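User: structure tokens for this one?
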Amino acid sequence: MEKVFKLIPISEDSPCLMLHPSQSKLLDETMIKTTIHFGLQKTEVTCKQLDTIKENEIGLSTTVIENLKLPLEVDYEVSIQNGEIIIGPFIGVLITNSRAKLKKKVNKLIPIKKLKQISKQYRLVRGVVVAFSWNGIDQNNSKINGYFYNPSSKKWEEGTFPFPAVIVKRTALSTERKKYLKKLYGSRFFHLASINKWKMYKRLSSNKDLIPHLPKTFLYKKPEDILNHLKSFRTIYVKPLSGFRGIGIEKFIAEPDHYCVKYRSDRKNVTIHFSSDTELLDYVKSKFKSKRYIIQQQIDLEIERNHSIDFRIALIKNQSGKWEDVGMVGRKGRKGSVVSNLTNGGKMIRAQTLLLTSLNLSEAEALSIRQKMSEIAIKAAEEIDKYDTIFKSGVDIAIDRDHHIWLIELNNRKPYLKFSKVGLKSTIVKVRNSRLFYAKYLAGFPKEKKNTGSK
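Assistant:
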């Protein structure tokens, strides 16, 4: 249901809800008395009809409005669940820890990029969107002090509200504070979970359908691990547990008479040769002291000579709460580079172009593989989602010479990368809007959408 309503205060002694007779179909005939929810606050009302009220209005007795602390300036939607009424959506956005800092943001004394973005996106969700700080939470009285976006004045206005229906975390929080919100909200407290590569591998490998698509991966514990796995696989990658943009990745190769390691440094390809196990181990001991690395089997992604090729699929949670594939791009690594990342000289290319040319596929074969890549990416996101509530993910995925699909990793922070470089601006818009659309779903306002599949 997406009909938009304005709330009108009604002078009634008893708590009641009033609708125009033509809107009475919104309620079940048995709903003479029901409960209204606004965020985590609720109150019982009697349902009545009123001829003088407009079709796009909902009348509420002033006691109900005051009890629920409902702003009258916004546009609301109504959702009926289990015979009870949800008015909203009511979304809380946790912007910062400091109440004073939030006030400065609202008064434009410091940058307010996040608030500007919400203001632009408000028309997509409507209801009440409140920006608040951790210090603005009154745990004893289940209230928050913050600023709600007023679409009429186009300003953020201060107020006190019940706890919202869902909380979107947009700032760093201590472990203790996150635990409190997770306990209170469960999956309705969501954020961008940061998952290191080893933890991600363990979670993905628990799904038997994904195992054939995962490169064999091991946790680095001691220098001899690299030497032993190198002798087994002949070529391996060593990656930081929490690395990004290809930084810190090194490729080890066992040649017939020596070893070598390749990596990128200062935008250049570097190769170092070692004539013995001892020389290699000395290098590993000096370079990998923290032990926060994984060792990974090499996948032959050098489809074009001296160029590695992989792909990035952008996934979002839509307003129906389902994972949706909203686009894919291809990445072609710089000649001789061990990574394909753009920051290391890689190029962004339309995925369809790479599938047809570099892999020499027909259009039908490319479409089939693209669909399989999408299915694997979504299955991987669903697996991670069992442990951490995420709403967007950039899935790095690849195809080897035998057209086998490999799952490299999931990046939950900037899944759209630089999709605009290949004309996929619509993907970027969908990803940016996904946070509030998914929040609207969690707040009790789902919208059934078909998964559009490949792009």
